Amino acid sequence: xxxxxxxxxxxxxxxxxxxxxxxxxxxxxxxxxxxxxxxxxxxxxxxxxxxxxxxxxxxxxxxxxxxxxxxxxxxxxxxxxxxxxxxxxxxxxxxxxxxxxxxxxxxxxxxxxxxxxxxxxxxxxxxxxxxxxxxxxxxxxxxxxxxxxxxxxxxxxxxxxxxxxxxxxxxxxxxxxxxxxxxxxxxxxxxxxxxxxxxxxxxxxxxxxxxxxxxxxxxxxxxxxxxxxxxxxxxxxxxxxxxxxxxxxxxxxxxxxxxxxxxxxxxxxxxxxxxxxxxxxxxxxxxxxxxxxxxxxxxxxxxxxxxxxxxxxxxxxxxxxxxxxxxxxxxxxxxxxxxxxxxxxxxxxxxxxxxxxxxxxxxxxxxxxxxxxxxxxxxxxxxxxxxxxxxxxxxxxxxxxxxxxxxxxxxxxxxxxxxxxxxxxxxxxxxxxxxxxxxxxxxxxxxxxxxxxxxxxxxxxxxxx
Length: 465
Prior knowledge:
Elements: H1 8-20, H2 24-37, H3 42-54, H4 58-71, H5 76-88, H6 92-105, H7 110-122, H8 126-139, H9 144-156, H10 160-173, H11 178-190, H12 194-206, H13 212-224, H14 228-241, H15 246-254, H16 266-276, H17 280-286, H18 291-299, E1 308-311, H19 317-322, E2 330-334, H20 337-345, E3 351-354, H21 357-362, E4 368-373, H22 384-390, E5 394-405, E6 414-416, E7 422-424, H23 426-435, E8 439-445, E9 449-451, E10 454-456, E11 458-464
Parallel strand pairs: 1-2, 1-4, 2-3, 4-5
Antiparallel strand pairs: 5-11, 6-7, 8-11, 9-10
C-alpha cells in the first residue's frame, strides 16, 4: 500500500474548510485534485456544487449536479443542493420539486425540510411553509436560520404575535445571533410599535449582538419617535460597522450626521421596497395615500393618449387607478423586484422593467404620451437630472404628472428629511422644469398622505412638453 497516496476524505475535508473560510481559489485547486481521485463520487459533486454556490457560479453548480442526480436519483443530499441552486436562480417551482424529493428520500434531514419551507413561503403557501419549518426547527432548535424563516412564514400568514414569540424564543436560546434580533426589530417596525423596536435594539446593543443592520433599524425606530439625536447616534454606529454600505450611508445622511447626497442610493431604495412589498398597499391605504386619485382626476376627460410610463410603479397602485381610462398601454419601471412581482400579478401593465429610474429614461426606448412620477421624487434631491431625462421621452404635448413633499419650515431648494425622503420647494420644481424645457401647467399644494395623524404637505404638478 502506498502510504503517500492522497487521502480523498482528508482532501474533501480541506475543501470544505476552504469554502467555509472563503478561500475559494485554493478550494478550487484542491477540489481538482480530489476530482481526479474520485470523479464520480457524490461527495465530490456536492463539494463542486457548494463551491459554485459560494463563488456565485450557479450555472457551474447546476452543470455538476444534473448528471450526478440523473445517475443517482435517490441521493437526497444532491437533490437538496440542486433545490438550493434553483432557488438562487429564481426557479422556485423546480426548486420546490427537488426539495420535496429530498425530504421524501430522507425525512429525518431538517435542512431539506427548511429549504422546502422557505420555498413554500416564497410560492405564497405560508401554512405549508410553517409546517415544514416547524419540523426543521424542532429537529434543530439552535439553528437561527430556521427560527428566522419560521417567523417570516408566520408573519406572512398574518400571525404576527406568533412570529414575535418565535423570534423571542430564538433570541433567548441563541443570544449572539444578530439576524434574529434584527428580524424581531423589523417585525415591530412593521407593526408600528416603535417603542418595542427600540427596546429590542437597546437589548441587542447591551448584549453585544448589534450589527450595522441592527443599528440602522434602531435609528429608524428612534427617528419614527422623533428622537432624532439618538437616531443620529445609532446611524453613526451603523456607519462604523459598515462604512462602505450605501444603505447605511444614506441613513446617516438622513439623520444629518453626514452631508446628504442629491439622491437616495439605488441599493437603499431597492432594500427598502423589497422589504416593504408585502405590506406596501395596505400601509399606504391606511395612511390615506391620495396620489393615485389625483393622477386619475388629472387624466379623466382629457385627450391624453398612451403609452403611459409609471416611474417607480411599485405594486401598481397607479395602474389600478387608471385601469379603465384610455391611456394605455401602461409601462412601469421600479428598482424592487418584489414590488414588480406584485404589480405583475395585477395584469395591468403591458411591460414592467427592473431598473434605476434615470438609467431607464436615458436608455433609448419609446416616447410616451404620459409619464407619471407618483411619490418617487422624494428619493431625489436635485430634480434637474430627472426632469432633463424625462423631457426627451415625452411626445410633443405629452404630460408629466408629479407629486413631491414640501417642508414649509425650510426655504432650501431641497432637503433630506428624517425618514430618508427629500422635500422640495415649489421654486425648485419650476426651475428644474424650465431647464428641461417643460412648461408648468398646474402646480398646487396637495396633502400627500397622513403620517402620525398629521397631513404630509406636498405639491401635485402637471408639466407639459
